[in-house]
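Help! Submission page says 'invalid entity' but I think these are all valid:
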Amino acid sequence: MKDKQKNLLGFEKPLAELYEKLDELKKVSSAGEMDMSEEVKMMEKRIENMRRDLSVKLSPIQIVQIARHIQRPTTLDYVALLLTDFIELHGDRNFGDDPALVTGIAKLDGQSVIVMGHQKGKTTKENIARNFGMANPEGYRKALRIMRIAERYNKPIISFIDTPGAYPGIGAEERGQAEAIAKNLREMAELTVPFISIVTGEGGSGGALGIGMGNKVLMLEFSIYSVISPEGCASILFRNAARANEAAMAMKITAKDLLELGVIDEIIKEPVGGAHNNPEQAATYIKSAIIKNLKPLLALSHRELIADRYNKFRKMGIFEEQ
Amino acid sequence: MSIHNWFKRKKAQQETAYVRERLDIPGNLWVKCYKCNQAIFTKDLEDNLKVCPKCSYHFKLTAAERIIQITDPNSFKEINQKIVSKDFLNFTDSKSYAQRIEKSILKSNLYDAIVTGLAKISNLPVALGIMDFSFMGGSMGSVVGEKIARLIELALEKKAPVIIFSSSGGARMQEGIMSLMQMAKTSAALGRLRENSLPYISVMTDPTTGGTSASFAMLGDVNMAEPDALIGFAGPRVIEQTIRQKLPPGFQRSEYVQEHGMIDVVCDRRQLRENLSKFLRWFDER
Ligand SMILES: [Zn+2]
């Protein structure tokens, strides 16, 4: 319980009190003085209800906080929970291996698949090792290399998106961050295999799109997807990073907004309060969404898959023609 | 307002004034070069393709100026001119996006940040796209993405090579995620061009960054750049803030980017037309 309290977000603070009461009840109960199991159950119900209430009226910036929650399940968590026979594949064969973007082979209900995703950490130490999920060019080039394997052996691709953005560093620039992402975009459009992308946390701009051109693009309920972080947008357009709140609202970055805009195909439900409250359940939801979306794609020819993807992205854009 | 914010705002205002000044040089007999600070006769500058005769600093060009410099006289036929951006998110910062669009159209005499069309260079047909920085910093929104995609599709139909001049700070934030999706759209279209073995020459001019560099601008069969142009993924300020150290001299400039393997030819504007012709002739030979 202590953990749960520690991980509460600012707007979830009302829950802290309830958790404390729950702790007390449990203590009394376990001391054997009185049977409190009814009360414990009731308190748990109250917590559940409050969580549900809280998650119904979440503002975009609150969703941003859940999307970035330090305990939010990562790509490797989901790989472990919903795939089997996973072997991680390392390296771009040119420069190095990027721990911020993991790739590998795995099975999904017996079906061989290629899986890839940005990898964040859950502690500061892990996050430093993973560069906070911000990939370098070699990460994107590794992803492309692995996509080519998928294509050669005719296996579907699943990508998990969770990154603040591609890494803005000297080395990243020198090794061609822009070129690496651009090339992935062009090549993903031409993949001859079914491709499903799922935004699981932060869909940070080009760094997200760099592995995100699926035939179907799905989003977890409390994930975000945007062209720039709310803070970045606020500091450039509002000249004040503290106005991230407004920027988050203005840019339309939640799963619901993106579904309305036609940029994503489906929202995957999350456990009450967010995936971190029940990663196993979140994984079940994701798994069934993948299976459901993969099925019709598996019936398409190579040519049809390419056409499907091209048309999907070709249609994107809102403008007026005079 | 904190001193820090005040300073940032002040700096931003200076920057926009700077950009505006160096884009149009209306009626003034003299111009001061932004690099060497020397006074140049406006006419001399224009005769020299807006390259400083003293230090070779390349002033920014409007799309119209570029067309005159690059294409055969009267050969440029604009396509899809009147596609106009829409404020579909009702996005408002200090002004609404709708107002920004309107103002930019009036100020720049353009419908959006790119002009596309069919033209001839040394009598060879090309599908040509030219971004114009004076329209909202050359940012890529739905219109830029759509015009590029249509240009490429037309090139496929006409079996013409594509040349795109970039000059863009990246994605247009006022269109949110839709501006990001233009990266996918333009790159996918270039994939088709490539599948059909039609050439694409990308010419990067100052600046080519963000979503523009991370999509169509970097995907040329041949990547060219004007000298000393800012070319990169992340902006230098963002990088400095992230890594908290000074950037190396020349970082993200054309020559530096070429040294790091991303650009084939850094080409002085005064040789650009001739070099493009050479490429087109090379590709054209069957
Ligand atoms: Zn000069």
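Support: the input was valid. A stray whitespace character was the problem, and the output above is from the cleaned input. The mean pLDDT of chain A is 94.
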